Each structure stands twice: as structure tokens, then as C-alpha cells.
Amino acid sequence: MQRVILHCDMNNFYASVECMLNPELKNKPVAVCGSVEERHGIVLAKNYAAKAFGVSTGEAIWQAKQKCQDLVIVEPHYEQYMKFSKLAREIYGRYTDQIEPYGMDECWLDVTGSGCMGTGFEIADEIRRTVKFELGLTISAGVSFNKIFAKLGSDMKKPDAITCIEADSFREKIWCLPASDLLGVGRATEKVLSGYGIHTIGELAATSDDFLKCRLGKNGLAIKKYANGLDDSPVMRSDYVSPVKSIGHGITTMQDLENNAEVWCVMLELVQEIGTKLRTHKKKAGGIAISTRNNELYTKEWQCRIGIPTQSPTYLAKTAFALFAKNYQWEHPIRSVTVRAINLFEEDCPIQYDLFTDVKSLDRQERLDAAIEQIRFRFGKDAIKNGVLFQKSKMPTERKVDLVMPTGMIG
């Protein structure tokens, strides 16, 4: 039996939710933007009225204002976006339990066994009309025989539309499209392909395996498989939880960091959250990765292994800072820092110590961190903290809603 896969994409999600909650915004150009004070002053989402002026996601607010003087700037309300995302998934759940999120506003649905409810197109159309009636939001849906083409279909016609890509006619329909339209072909990959005269999905599909593997590695073979309609990846069940591959936390500071002491304070704060999440997921970190972005928006990354897998925020902070101090040259101040625990092990995984490890000291530190964690859990995150963190901080105010995305990384 040929699979029937839907990809449902909620149109201009953040901006659409804001316009639905505030009808006065409906016919105005609207952009949902981050906080200028906390240096997140970029466009996160825009509605079609703003898009008509050329406003694009990711540009600075002042740039968007130059394009559209009447642009209405709205701050994000993540709790509302999470609520409507959940409500949409409840609607999808009326048709199948195989619902795989792809971000907050997109989902794949496998409705292969739902023939009694109609064809793939009929089910997608019913979902589209239900979402509009019950939530006041519009979706675009792709209907196909695999996930890659269903995603491609939902992008082809927007808003409030359905596109079908059938197995017997996909070549005529999509091989003429730019290769960059295909999931898995990002900017860097597109640049490589374009450099060798590969511009369309059809040209990608006809390229030799050896050439793609030589230039793009395993990803080259994967995107050729996608282009030829050979994707057979399953749509996960709605209760599926992606394996946690790394646990990280990062921030953009309110003012630039200008010396090692300020970076140390930020890292100490970041690893408290990482330690909590490691304990929640019953993992230990076997490595640490750090990323910095300077005030010219240039990013540098480093990583290293940790001798003894740990959950200790103190040990993680010391390792991260030592890695930073060894590698960062203070040519420019720093505006953002990210720390990630990588090479994760199960909490109860046996550990081989070497002869020089102070096991008693490690055990004391682990028990101390566990006690601190209990205090923070009972009385709040600020109930106990390192003394250095009580000084004037360049850390931004904390986000009220944690966003958990299906990427294999908890952030």
C-alpha cells in the first residue's frame, strides 16, 4: 500500500496568532519582533501585509521600518503560540496518532490507514477548514507519498491551500524547481551544487552518486535520494520522544562582555540550567561545546572531551571557561555565549577512572550539586547561587516559557 503523508504548515504562525487575538491588527502590516533592550531586535515573523513591503524574517527592526513606515511591531507571546500549536495538534489527532512535529507550527501526519475518512486531499482539506473554523488560523498542506515531498508541497502554495505531489507525476511537477526548495539543501549545500551547475531538483536527481559523495559526503547521497522520491523515513507517533543528543543553553547579553570575568559569570549562570536538564533526562556529559558571537556577529565554536562524565554545573563551568580562555582572542567584545553538554552518557553508565582521579573530591562535588539542585527546585532558581552572580549582571531577563523543539537538542 502506498503511503499517504500530509505536511501541515500554519501560515505566518506568530503573526497570525497576534492578528487573531487582536482583530485591530488584521488589515495592518504586522511584524513580531524580539526585544530591542535585550538585543533581540529582529523580525521573528510577519504577516502577508508586511511581506508585501519586502519585510523579511531575520532583519533588524530598523531595516523593516525603512521598508514599511506603518509597520506595527508586536512583542512575542510564546505562551499563546504554544497553546495554539497544541490545539492544532489535537485537531490532527482526530485523524491519526502518527503526528511528528517539525518546529512549533509544522507537523507531518501519516494518514495511510485513514481511507475511511477520505483521500489524502480530502483529509487535508477537512483539516484546513477545521483549523480555520476552530482556531481562526490558516494552514497550507502538502499531500504526497513521502515526508520530503509532503513538506515541499506545503511550501509550494500559500496561504490556506493544498498541493498534491503524486508518485506517478512528481518528476513533471517538481524537478523544474530550484534545488534549494528541497529539504536538506541549505545555503551552504546550494552554493556547492550551484558551483557545479546543479540548479534544479531534476539536475540533482540525475547527478552521479560518486560526485555527490565526494563533494557533500553522506548528505549528498541523502538529498539525491530525496530528489528521486525515495525517502522512506517514517512519521513518528505523537508520543515519540527524540533521543537527547545534547543539552545546551545560550543567551545574548544586554551589553557586550569585555573581559574573562564577565564571560565566567555568564557561563556559571548558563550551566545551572544545563545541570538541571542533565538530571531531568538522567544523562551525564562526556564533553563540552561552547560558542561565542562577537559584536561584529562573527561566531566561533570550540569543543573538548571531559575526562569523567558528569552532571556537575561547577565542573561543566570550569571546563567551558578553560576552553574559552585557551582559545578566545580578545579582538572584539562578545555579545552572545552558548554552552552545550555533548557526548551524553546514561546516568548509571559504568565509568572507568584513571589512577590520578580524586574520586572522593568528585563525589563530594556531585553531592553538593545535588543538594543545591534540591534547594533550587523547592525554593526557586534564585534561592541559592554563586556569590559572583549577585553582582550587576549583563544577563537578560529570563524567558517565561521554555520552548522544546523536536531537534534532538534541549535548549
TrEMBL record:
E.C. code: 2.7.7.7
Keywords per UniProt: Cytoplasm, DNA damage, DNA repair, DNA replication, DNA-binding, DNA-directed DNA polymerase, Magnesium, Metal-binding, Mutator protein, Nucleotidyltransferase, Transferase
Catalytic residues (positions): 106
InterPro entries referenced in this protein's UniProt entry, alphabetically: DNA/RNA_pol_sf, DNA_pol_Y-fam_lit_finger_sf, DNA_pol_Y-fam_little_finger, DNA_polymerase-Y, DNApol_IV, Rev_trsase/Diguanyl_cyclase, UmuC
Matches recorded under Gene3D superfamilies: 3.30.70.270, 3.40.1170.60, 5' to 3' exonuclease, C-terminal subdomain (1.10.150.20), DNA polymerase, Y-family, little finger domain (3.30.1490.100)
Annotated site residues (Substrate discrimination) in this chain: 14
UmuC domain ranges (all copies): 5-186
Binding site for Mg(2+): 9, 105
Broad EC category: transferase
GO MF annotations, alphabetized: damaged DNA binding; DNA-directed DNA polymerase activity; magnesium ion binding
Compartments where found: Cytoplasm
Cofactor needs: Mg(2+)
Catalytic activity: DNA(n) + a 2'-deoxyribonucleoside 5'-triphosphate = DNA(n+1) + diphosphate
Superkingdom of origin: Bacteria
PROSITE patterns: UMUC (PS50173)
Task performed by this protein: Poorly processive, error-prone DNA polymerase involved in untargeted mutagenesis. Copies undamaged DNA at stalled replication forks, which arise in vivo from mismatched or misaligned primer ends. These misaligned primers can be extended by PolIV. Exhibits no 3'-5' exonuclease (proofreading) activity. May be involved in translesional synthesis, in conjunction with the beta clamp from PolIII.
Protein name: DNA polymerase IV
